[in-house]
Amino acid sequence: MTNMEPKQEKSLIIIKPDAIQRNLMGEIINRIERKGLKIIGLKMVSIDDAKLDEHYSHIKDKPFFPGIRDFMKSCPVVVMAVEGINAISALRILVGPTKAWEADAGTIRGDFSLSTQSNIVHASDSVENGEVEVARFFDLNELFDYKKIDVDFVYAEHKK
Q1: Of 8, 83, 112, 143, which residue is least crowded by CB atoms under 10 Å?
Q2: Which one is catalytic: 55, 58, 122, 158?
Q3: Is residue 64, in this structure, part of any structural domain at all?
Q4: Is residue 122 part of a domain?
């Protein structure tokens, strides 16, 4: 056991076009809220090429990237800034692995996807990327700091 103070982490969630078209927005938001995480920003957007190139800079030179770009621009997406203690790992477990066919039942991808590209959601993969990605999609005035009344029932006293 360490003496480190628990740290609030931020993650970006993108509800992708396949989830939008399949009417899964409410289900995904519901699962995140039921987990005990706090949504601090939420909006529906159309993502332009520049933002997609920035967000997917690690794969933008790959031959499959044009297909991802077309997919992500096929309809609006929902972007959410989510906050909580250990939010990154909690969301990665809740979402399941990128290769959705490997995802366990009970995860978002395990329950709703069999694809790598059409895998329902994006979730930040590290604390650093969470901060960068939230800042990429949200201005400071679009993020809200508020106290949730259920926090006493989500975290142990020493974790708050």
Answers
A1: 8
A2: 122
A3: no
A4: yes
